[in-house]
Design goal:
- By secondary structure, this protein is mainly alpha-helical.
- The chain has a domain of about 80 residues.
- Helices cover about 60% and strands about 0% of the residues.
- The chain contains three helices and no strands.
């Protein structure tokens, strides 16, 4: 096995849900690796789409998942919807504060969800 190859986790429903959840948290700006000055602005359009994908998956798999899988996706969708609203409110506050201090607001085009 070369340095570039590593074992991948099994392709499970749980892994799919957690992958989409993590991607959404990154788009909301909740997960970031690096220096704070390099933190990207939240992309609310993509985050909303990812949440909608999870909600669609939840609906399409209803009755065909274990109780544990059902709880996992329900909790993920509920938590992400809540965190989406929190992140949007925080972003709007920062944008308003930047406007009052005379700074140019950052990338306002991404805020529309």
């Amino acid at each position: 096995m070369s340095d570039q190859e590593y074992p991948l986790p099994p392709a499970t429903f749980e892994f799919l849900v957690l992958s989409l959840k993590t991607q959404t948290e990154m788009h909301l700006g909740l997960l970031f690796f690096g220096e704070e000055k390099d933190r990207p602005e939240p992309d609310f359009r993509i985050a909303r789409h990812s949440i909608d994908l999870l909600a669609m998956l939840q609906e399409k798999t209803r009755g065909n998942t274990t109780l544990e899988e059902q709880r996992l996706i329900e909790n993920a969708v509920t938590e992400l919807r809540f965190r989406f609203v929190q992140a949007m409110e925080e972003h709007q506050k920062k944008t308003a504060a930047a406007g009052q201090s005379g700074e140019a607001p950052k990338s306002e085009g991404q805020a529309g969800a």
